[in-house]
Amino acid sequence: MRIGDFVKADREMRGVNRSAMVAALETSGGRESIVVRYDDNGSLETLAPQYVWLVARGWNGNASGSAAVHVCRIGNALVAIPTTAPRFIIIGAQKAGTTSLSKYLDQHPNVLPGNRFEPHFFDFRVPGGVKRVSFTDDAEYYCFIRRQYATTMFKYDTLLAAANDGNGAGAGASAPISFEKTPAYITYAEKFPRLFRKVLPWMEKVVAILRDPVDRAYSHFNMGYSRKDVNSIPIMFDRAVRSELEKMRSSGLFRHAPRSVHGVTSDCLGARERAEESKTFQRLARGCLARGLYEIQLRQWAKYYPIPGHLLVLNYDEGPGQVYRQVLRHVGLSDSEVPGGYINHFSAKYSAPMLNTTRSLLEAFYGPYNARLANLLGEEW
């Protein structure tokens, strides 16, 4: 569906204010509405040489426009967001091949890469100093966040132009789409699934790649100590493991001492205990070991993005080609080979192998949680 004419302003429009915009809306009688942008403080920014969009004639201001564009309101101004910014988000896990997957997707003919490698918008870049009290209601507040995200993290003008030309969502194989990859998002399981639904109401696809939590933890640790004495890393990791396990035990995440840890099986937890477990996890989620407790994180995500239709969970061990092809099918992209093949990006060999005693300890710790993950996903992990 074509949503209107896409025109570039042919003159300077400095000094345009909200009153002028209201007058323009009244003059149009609701048949045409000008869409504007705001600066970081929420004030109307100078439009020239920016674009001005005319929303489809006959739109009554209540509908969300076409499937290609989401329309919301900040004050008296309308904001148009292409529903391809983004079409999907890769939420994790860290050290599970997400960088390589992102590089492959960037080369797909129908993908328009975003403006940042790992945006971290929702954990670090949500506009500061902007409070809900600055807006009429939550809908206006989320519209502001939505606009900031789409216009700073993606090639907004290009995607909106494609939507305006009838090449947006549902327009066929030629439609360009964008995505985000920030593997830390998976750990914010108590907050981000709900936030995504509010800020990105059109986005229905999320992707998570999981890696054996023992190997993931060692890869994570090596990343932080790559320049240290290679012979000391296995011992340092063992000490870090025992320290974090004790911290998790003392915080009440599980009930056993590290030297005889067995985790907590799913049948030990009622609904109230699961809720408490999730809250406790959030206080520990940045830990090297905590990030591998996938079931605790994914069960929260699955409440808002059901598995597998909306949340696709893949195994790192399936290999990069298989993971890539499954993601293409999940998000509705056509099959396409990666030029140059499936190269591992930012992948490095461990400086030294993990101590056997450390591996045994971690396998005992993760075992019950992996069993719970298998119950959630319906397959062995």
Note down, in words, how this protein is organized.
This protein is of the alpha/beta class. The protein is 39% helix and 10% strand. The protein is built from twelve helices and nine strands. The strands form three sheets. A four-stranded parallel beta sheet has the order 7-6-8-9, sandwiched between helices. A three-stranded antiparallel beta sheet has the order 1-3-2. A two-stranded antiparallel sheet has the order 4-5. β4 and β5 form a beta hairpin. The longest helix has 22 residues. The N terminus is likely disordered.
Shape category:
globular
Major beta sheet summary: 4 strands, parallel
- Structural class, by secondary structure, is alpha/beta
**Total count of strands:** 9
- The N- to C-terminal Cα distance equals 44 Å
Q: List the uncertain runs.
A: 1-65, 167-173, 257-268
Residue share in helix:
25-40%
How many individual helices? 12
> Order of strands across the widest beta sheet?
7-6-8-9
Would you kindly provide a brief summary of this structure?
With 381 residues, the chain is of the alpha/beta class.
Chain-wise SSE layout:
Blueprint lengths: L5 E3 L9 H11 L5 E2 L15 E4 L14 E6 L2 E6 L5 E5 L5 H9 L14 H5 L12 H16 L2 H9 L14 E3 L10 H8 L5 E6 L2 H12 L8 H18 L20 H14 L9 H11 L6 E5 L4 H12 L24 H22 L4
Parallel strand pairs: 6-7, 6-8, 8-9
Antiparallel strand pairs: 1-3, 2-3, 4-5
Please supply descriptive tags for the structure shown above.
381 residues; four-stranded parallel sheet
